[in-house]
């Protein structure tokens, strides 16, 4: 008689840390729904969720496009483009996000308005600095900051593709653009997607910094509510819970994406 081991149960295959996180979210949801105070705080902060997601979504989309262009410049055969792109990446990555937010909001934005007004002089028209909304200043700052990091992700993915395949594609008569579109980018995408998704999660957390500019995101609304009610403990519990809900949910999706890509690769 042979012994056939029983397959592990579903519960035993779930990591303990994931069970602990699930329990934490259940307790958090139960606490918010069962407490009048926490429910009121949640209703006061829920408008900031859309602002946080809007700022993150727009900034990350723009940063991805800009980062791809910078990465193409860094891998270009033109030395001038390579040097300019490298200079951009090294400078931007060396400045803290909060400092860059302030710089764009209070130095870059007034400077841009001054240039626009100078260009509009022949038309007897002008704009004011107040017309440059702080939400868009925050989006511009996050776009520039994250584009430098995303450019390095794209560059690493592009350079990971075997150069022999590119040489073979070129020998078949494919143009440089077709080589990139049909050979390089589809293969680089496997390397690029997981860290790119992780950067999106990081941007959600860093978007809390835009509250320093008065943007009405989750953090700013929490700051305003707690200063008016002195319920700092309860308010920031809800703030942390909202950010954890978004970031951990996205992190789990990234893990599933990485696992799916590994299975498809092999």
Summary of the model, kept short:
The protein has helices at residues 10-13, 16-34, 36-74, 79-93, 97-119, 134-159, 163-171, 176-206, 218-229, 232-265.
Describe this structure as you would to a colleague:
- The protein is an all-alpha fold and 266 residues long.
- The protein has a single domain, classed as MetI-like fold.
- The protein is 80% helix and 0% strand.
- The chain has ten helices and no strands.
- Helix 2 (16-34) crosses helix 3 (36-74), helix 3 crosses helix 6 (134-159) and helix 3 packs antiparallel against helix 9 (218-229).
- The radius of gyration is 24 Å and the shape is flat.
Sheet with the most strands?
A: none
Taking the alpha carbons of the first and last residues, their distance comes to 36 Å
Portion of residues in helices? over 70%
Task: Report the average pLDDT across residues.
Answer: 84
**CATH class descriptor name:** Mainly Alpha
Into how many domains do the coordinates divide? Answer: 1
Order of helices and strands: HHHHHHHHHH
CATH superfamily: MetI-like
The CATH topology corresponds to: MetI-like fold
Shape: flat
Q: Which percent band covers the strand fraction?
A: under 5%
């Amino acid at each position: 008689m042979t012994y056939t081991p029983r397959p592990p149960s579903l519960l035993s295959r779930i990591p303990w840390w994931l069970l602990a996180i699930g329990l934490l979210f259940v307790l958090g949801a139960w606490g918010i729904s069962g407490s009048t105070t926490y429910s009121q705080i949640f209703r006061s902060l829920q408008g900031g969720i859309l602002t946080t997601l809007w700022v993150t979504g727009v900034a990350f989309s723009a940063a991805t496009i800009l980062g791809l262009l910078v990465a193409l410049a860094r891998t270009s055969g033109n030395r001038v483009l390579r040097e300019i792109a490298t200079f951009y990446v090294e400078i931007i990555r060396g400045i803290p996000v909060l400092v860059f937010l302030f710089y764009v909001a209070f130095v870059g934005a007034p400077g841009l308005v001054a240039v626009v007004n100078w260009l509009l002089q022949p038309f007897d028209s002008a704009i004011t600095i107040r017309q440059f909304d702080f939400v868009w200043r925050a989006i511009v700052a996050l776009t520039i900051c994250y584009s430098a990091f995303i450019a390095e992700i794209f560059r690493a993915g592009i350079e990971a593709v075997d150069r022999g395949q590119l040489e073979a594609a070129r020998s078949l008569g494919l143009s440089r653009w077709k080589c990139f579109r049909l050979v390089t980018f589809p293969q680089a995408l496997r390397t690029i997607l997981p860290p790119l998704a992780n950067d999106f999660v990081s941007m959600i957390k860093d978007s809390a910094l835009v509250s320093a500019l008065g943007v009405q995101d989750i953090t700013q609304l929490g700051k305003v509510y707690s200063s008016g009610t002195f319920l700092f403990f309860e308010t920031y519990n809800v703030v942390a819970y909202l950010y954890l809900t978004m970031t951990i949910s996205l992190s789990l999706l990234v893990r599933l994406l990485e696992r799916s890509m590994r299975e498809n690769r092999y």
